[in-house]
Amino acid sequence: xxxxxxxxxxxxxxxxxxxxxxxxxxxxxxxxxxxxxxxxxxxxxxxxxxxxxxxxxxxxxxxxxxxxxxxxxxxxxxxxxxxxxxxxxxxxxxxxxxxxxxxxxxxxxxxxxxxxxxxxxxxxxxxxxxxxxxxxxxxxxxxxxxxxxxxxxxxxxxxxxxxxxx
Length: 166
Known about the structure:
Distance between the termini: 48 Å
Radius of gyration: 16 Å
Number of domains: 2
Number of strands: 5
Largest sheet: 5 strands, mixed
Oligomer: single chain
Structural class: alpha+beta
Number of helices: 5
CATH superfamily of the largest domain: Beta-grasp domain
Shape: globular
């Protein structure tokens, strides 16, 4: 079955069994930032945004994504042009093994999209479903709060146009 969706801003047709879990279908399509941890929706490593909401893709049949807009961590940024959250995770040292980072970044982005000025408790709640066995959580909370501050500063700067002119 073909599942027509938008992934990271591009129209995509996934060829898969509709009962295959979305995490598996995305990985097969090359989106390796989607990790499969527990396979039960408990650890958050597989989180992607679907129509603006974070979802655990390991428990979502791929057929349910028909017509949806999906954002994976690859769509947030890349090493040359990281998203402010990705850079904050690196700067804070909250990226040890990295396996759970994609899901945590998606959860953090969903939070900042709906609340650009979160409290530490807001961040804790948003990251609650993302388990990390290497770094703990304090550095992640700090990273999201720093990213929120950096995002506010970036909003106040005039946008650069092509060619580097303001």
